[in-house]
Specification:
By secondary structure, this protein is mostly helical. It has 3 domains: about 90 residues, no CATH class; about 70 residues; about 35 residues. About 65% of the residues lie in helices and about 0% in strands. The chain contains 10 helices and 2 strands. The N and C termini lie far apart (about 75 Å). The mean pLDDT is about 80.
Amino acid sequence: MAGLVPYLVPFDALRAFAGSRDPNACMKIEGLFKRELADEPGAAGALRRLCMGEPPSGDGAPYVWALEILCAHFGQKLPNASVATIDDEKRELSHHPERLPMLPGELRPHPTPRQYILIAVVLVIITGFEIATSYISTNDVSARLIAAVLITMAAVKFSLVVAWYMHLRTDLKIFRRMFVGGLLLAGAVYLVMLSMLHVFDQGKHAR
């Protein structure tokens, strides 16, 4: 059962700490378990309230962490391969992020860090091709062809960014439709503005 770990703890030590109002004892435990307390917001406050003998209030999760820290401080961890500590669970999820529970509105798990890095590498490579293409002389290759290639590579990069880094690939289809609809609307407005500025007419006169 993930999140559980057996401890052999002298109960008298726990009872002596609870309500002891000893700030030195509390500060000592906070210093020894600084990293563990930082993992759970509110755990340090829960530990202080237990020390001061104050009744629990709010969410119970910080008190669970505070209790485990007290057990680790006053007691001894028992070997048991059938259970895992909270740290073990976090470490397992860091190696297998695909096991993280999906958030509301997600259709599939988020990409792994490795996938994010691979997409970043692909984006850098495409950017390199774009820079190289921009240096091609129009005397050798048609300017329209160069423009078409650059626009195509920009579209590929745009699609990768919105699909992976903006999570449209993993979210509900309604978000994708809203994004594409807004993009088409913006493109239509842009074309209308170009028409009003007679940009296309200028191209005809130039011929």
